[in-house]
Amino acid sequence: MPDDSTVASEAPTTVTPGKRVLEVDRVTLKFGGLTALDDVSFHIDEGEILGLIGPNGAGKTTCFNVTTGVYRPTSGHVRFEGDTLTGKKRYQITQLGIARTFQNIRLFRSMTALENVMVGADAQHSTGLFHALFRLPRHRREETQGHDQAMDLLRFMGIHKAADELAANMSYGDQRRLEIARAMATNPRLICFDEPAAGFNPAEKQTLMNLIRQVRDRGHTVLLIEHDMRLVMGVTDRIVVLEFGRKIAEGTPAEVRDNPAVIAAYLGVDEDEAS
User: Fold this and answer.
1) What is the mean pLDDT of residues 192-212?
2) pTM for the full model?
């Protein structure tokens, strides 16, 4: 795992507004008579770490799933680098440059750590079954590159010594790191973390803060869903807050922390009492 000596109290790196990577534009999602997302809009600029937070049932994961192609919005649009994602399949979204992890770890448990990450690398390979069957030079070259990339990511995560270990036999924390490595292997420009600190102890959460910054420093823009407010406040550049499927606040961690609507949503008090 990357060195955590600078984790605890570092302020997030300041990001200068630049290229817009993701835009969620007035997205509404309905399941029958239930409105899960109601006219939600926000954006992420290149190089940002954006936090998406809210009380249980606020619509965070639903919004996450719309962004990554699991759900198709009832109305509105999600755009990635200017191109609409509406109607695209999940593998197409991955190939465009969006990767994600899951709240409940999803690994190929009977495959090794190295093989799991190589599966991620394969998402961006141009050769297919024909090239693989006949072991053509282009396929062998991509396979070698995928192997080297996977080992580099395992080293980045500090789990390279477990490269040949079955994913099922790895510790919970190492499985979390392995899932992040596999997502990064797809070479995403945007990586979406769905509660990556779930099940971590306080020391591991501090180390995770540093890891998320280092992921950004490797050239990835980050969308983060996380319940641990200390982690969110310590690592994000901006935060979007949802409640009952609607956006109720957006701003820097300091602005969101002091927002009466956010305080009311988390503490269950009226906004006037929170002011």
Assistant:
1) 92
2) 0.84
